[in-house]
Amino acid sequence: MTEQEVAVRGRLSQLGIAYERYEHPPVSTAEEGERHWIGIAATHSKNLFLRNQNGNRHYLLIVVHSKRVDLRAVAAQIGDGKLSFGSPERLMAQLGVTPGSVSPFGLIHNADHAVRVVIDRDLKAAQRISFHPNINTVTLTLTFADFERFLSDCGNPVQYVGM
Hints:
Layout: H1 3-14, E1 20-23, H2 30-33, E2 45-52, E3 58-64, H3 71-78, E4 83-85, H4 88-95, E5 115-120, E6 128-131, E7 138-143, H5 144-154, E8 158-161
Parallel strand pairs: 3-5, 5-8
Antiparallel strand pairs: 1-7, 2-3, 2-4, 6-7
């Protein structure tokens, strides 16, 4: 078990959040994950680390894994200009993870709460939701209500959007 996973599981335990753990080969994209998520009863997502055009705002976009993402439409809904992917250096500085391991659990490393969380509102209908615990060889599942409790504890701004 990696230090990253230990930190995530520790935070979930502190919050009294139950989860299920699944190991699998490394998964860097939602498309790769589909073959390893068979048998995991949860709604899976893709998690994109984004920045605005000026580079002074960062976003974590969480969307149902099978959806195509239109960054212009997302930018219009959140009231920001052009969005693009954040660099690996920005990702490490803001969420403490590397490309391929982007997860909302990285918010435990965002002490200044500067990363804005943008969530596909269709995820609200999920009974259970899954994410990497900041390492792409493990998937944790938890209820959506518990995920919202986790986000509340992190203190980052959260906004729901249509996709």
